[in-house]
Design goal:
Length: about 170
């Protein structure tokens, strides 16, 4: 899951999620130290959990569901990083912080029902920019009128003032 997408998930209106009894949780195979560093550097307000042994990933049989080619198909409005930027950032991060797993490994997005007993929505990423659009997640959670209620705005729909607020929050 790209950092751009994670930051977009973090911009979803928390009061609207709370009103609909929904919570966003991220689970990553990154080691706990890397998770803490990312959460601190990006000022995330959503919980992020480490599954370094990839227990959940394995339980969902995710390794066998994807086109595992190293591809960077930008098909998501949530990806604002260019291909060269992504490769340079990944290389620098690998050198300075150590490798964090197989870059071909893909994730997914899930909506779990009451008491976490049922999965009401599942999206398995096929490649690294194949993120489910946030409006689709909001609809799956029960917020079909996400735009009207102000639950989320795409980055390219935000005013410069709104972007400045987000950037200022991230820089603290």
């Amino acid at each position: 899951m790209s950092a751009d997408y994670i930051l977009d998930l973090d911009r979803i209106s928390k009061p609207i999620l709370t009103h609909h009894k929904a919570t966003i949780v991220l689970i990553t195979p990154a080691p706990p130290r890397a998770v803490r560093r990312f959460v601190q550097q990006s000022s995330l307000s959503i919980p992020v959990f480490s599954d370094a042994p990839r227990s959940l990933y394995t339980a969902l049989n995710m390794n066998f569901r994807f086109d595992s080619k190293l591809e960077y198909r930008v098909s998501s409005r949530h990806v604002r990083t260019t291909v060269p930027e992504a490769w340079v950032k990944g290389f620098v991060k690998g050198v300075t912080e150590g490798l964090q797993g197989d870059p071909r490994q893909q994730g997914g997005s899930f909506v779990l029902g009451p008491a976490l007993r049922t999965c009401t929505f599942a999206h398995f990423d096929r490649f690294n920019a194949d993120h489910v659009p946030i409006p689709d997640l909001l609809t799956a959670v029960g917020i079909p009128d996400w735009r009207e209620v102000g639950a989320f705005k795409y980055w390219d729909e935000m005013t410069e003032e709104e972007k400045a607020v987000v950037k200022d929050r991230r820089s603290k």
